[in-house]
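Suppose you are handed only two things: the residues of a chain and a line of SMILES describing flavin-adenine dinucleotide. What would the bound structure be? This form records exactly that question and the answer produced for it, so the two can be stored side by side and reused later without any lookup.

QUESTION INPUTS
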Amino acid sequence: MPPAASPPTLVWFRDDLRLADNPALTAAAGGDGPIVAVYVLDEESPGLRPLGGAARWWLAGSLRALATDLRARGVPLVLRRGPAAQRISELVEEVGAAEVVWNRRYDPAAAAVDDTVADVLAARGVGVATFQAALLVEPAQMRTKTGGPYGVFTPFLRALLALPEPRFPLPAPKAVRSLAGVPSDRLEDWDLEPTAPDWAAGFRSVWRPGEAGAGDRLTAFLDEGLKGYATLRDRPDRTSTSRLSPHLRFGEISPFQVFHAARHAREAGRGGTTGQDVDKFVAELVWREFAYHLLAQNPRLATANHQPRFDAFPWRSDASALHAWQRGRTGYPIVDAGMRELWTTGWMHNRVRMVVASFLVKHLLIDWREGERWFWDTLVDADPANNAASWQWVAGSGADAAPYFRIFNPVLQGEKFDPDGAYVKHWIPALRRLGAQHVHRPFDTPPLELAAAGVTLGRDYPAPLVDHKVARERALAALATIKT
Ligand SMILES: Cc1cc2nc3c(=O)[nH]c(=O)nc-3n(C[C@H](O)[C@H](O)[C@H](O)COP(=O)(O)OP(=O)(O)OC[C@H]3O[C@@H](n4cnc5c(N)ncnc54)[C@H](O)[C@@H]3O)c2cc1C
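ANSWER OUTPUT
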């Protein structure tokens, strides 16, 4: 049969909004028939968690970029909205597709949707082919010596690194045949982006969603950030990490691409990068793998304590303290700077994420799920596995979690990781005239020094919501009630 007469293959894009290293797209492009590229905004299938506001903003930009990149290859991106099983089978019918291909998802709720779609298609005699693209190693491949899943990071890391090296990334397909004239929703009609008020101005100034933006971000990191990563990655006052998280979250770049680029940077000695820097960076990528491994074991990772003893934890309900935390008004500068960075840019440095999360859970005794929900709504990289696993890790309720009794002192954390106060001063301009010795502890600063810096506590910057020592004792007492 001549190629033009071959039936189309549907390429179902999801959290893999890229052309390069996209095995599903590559497979379809290599077939005889034309392809139909589709994205389904599914907020209706049971169990799926709707995206938060910041992630919806990102998705809009990412889809726009994907549509542009596909169009440059002559392929329109078809947008449909609704339950995936219904929308995909309708489209198969409309275009007469013989096969649907996609890259696998590992969030159990999303994987269940994919299983349903596969069943519906199989029942109609439509072929399905799925591929590994989002994780270096699929959760089911990682098993301990006794055959169970891993619960502790270090052995997981060791075992993953002992496997054969992850495959090399695939190039973007050069020639792609496509089918024209397939009706599509208009992206603007999906209302993914804010209008009034437009809270995303700060996002636009720091981010460029899409595959090209991801590639540029990786290049900049390899040139300037990877060198020194092992020692500087905890410094929020430096551009010391890759900021690839939202790009990885939406699959605008794959972990295979990032892994091999980092390894290659070491071999090429790029920018003075050391083996230690690369090993540390790869270990962070493996934390992402580990989080998915945990989510695969526990679909309720975002809602249920991994350690059931935390079900009895005496969390406080305190709406005004929660609001102060959300808006960066706790009176602890490193916490407030982080929460303001999050609100303004949709992202926060990892060290600061740990400090603000610890503050909510331990100083304010507010349930980690409140924090997880706030992050879900405000992070551009809000990720079903990383967010839930990290919150449980900080709260002490997770697998291989930081022990609850280890309580960060937010002043000392600020002084250690933002020694000149540059990060705090950037996000809290009211404190910019305080010296480095005071900027992380305005409440401990002599009144004359505060006055000289133009700061009146309670007017320019809040007094602390809680006293660190008192809060620490209260948190330990709360923990004692659930000790086994
Ligand atoms: C309370 C809390 C909530 C978090 N929520 C999220 C989230 O929703 N989405 C998210 O991607 N990360 C989350 N993280 C993990 C981490 O903070 C971010 O991945 C990291 O800050 C992203 O910045 P980066 O890309 O510059 O990281 P880099 O240091 O450059 O690391 C490279 C990549 O490795 C992965 N990674 C790094 N650290 C971790 C980690 N601790 N756990 C899992 N993966 C990691 C990310 O994909 C990251 O992009 C959370 C951490 C905490 C403490």
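WHAT STANDS OUT: The radius of gyration is 24 Å. The longest helix spans residues 275-297.
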